[in-house]
Amino acid sequence: MMEVMKNKILEGQIGLLLLVIMGVIIALVMSVASRSLSDTVLSRQERESSAAFSVAETGVEQAMSALQNTDGQSISGNLSAFSDAVTGNYQVNTNTTYGLFVKEGETAQLDVNSPISDFVIYWTKKSDMSENIDCTSPSALKYPAAIEISAVSTSGVVARNYYNAFNCSYGTTGFDASTIAGDPDYKSKVIYVIPDSTLKLRIKPLLAGATIAVSGTGLSNQLYLIQSKAATGDAQKEIEVKRGLDAPPSVFDFSLFTTGTIGN
Fold first, then answer.
1. Based on CB atoms within 10 Å of each CB, which residue in 24, 73, 89, 171 is the most buried?
2. Considering the domain 97-220 in this protein, what is its CATH number?
3. β-strand pairing of 146-153 with 117-125
């Protein structure tokens, strides 16, 4: 009798041990399956994200190419032709104001071939510490940008003006002073009277890069906003690009607009 009971107890322990082992094996199998499923989902999402982003970039390139042949008034396109699995579109909108970061020595060009009033130029972005520097105690001898304004007339004559950032003086440069902008985004402001017969206005930051913004009554389109969207599966991508008007590089400022002969 005792022997039978011992065998039953032993069998019960073995059965319990087998259940534990089976539970561990099932848990391991479920873990591997879950990880494999997760990896598959992540891989699919990465492929979809990459495909959507690639097609959205293609939309930007298509819009840039279209801007070479049109004024941007009605540029749009469908992106489905670039991939069977991806849908999308791009659109170009125009803006009569300007607002872009311009590197030191580079130039923002504006079309002012029409009567314009209340023309204002803003710079020294308050939220950007690389622009909004205390001029009285500059950090590492860095200064906020001054600006050069070149007004190019229809006859090729260029009139230039220079302005310091607000409350700044860079020594004996002879630059004119700007005023405080009174704007939540910018610190420096110039109310600029555009000379008669001016065709193009070119604004160049000096000493540092700066975000240049302009406003005025009567301004034509000065800025293009390209928006390209693409989607596939669970992935959606949108790219926005701001682009100014076509302009010659700033290196040509002192030769391109001259009406005389350029000497050797």
1. 89
2. 2.60.120
3. unpaired
Q: List the chain domain ranges.
A: 1-92+224-234, 97-220
| Cα pseudo-dihedral 110, 196, 153, 186, rounded to 10 | -30
Cα 15 to Cα 2, 4, 6, 29, 138, distances in angstroms = 20, 16, 14, 21, 80
Q: What is the pLDDT of residues 43-93, one digit of tens each?
A: 777 888 888 898 999 999 989 888 887 766 678 888 876 667 888 999 999
Answer whether residue 3 shows pLDDT above 70: no
Tokens of 113: 């071939």
> What's the whole-model pTM score?
0.74
Residue for token pair 């975000």: 211
Cα 40 to Cα 35, 36, 236: the distances in Å are 8, 6, 19
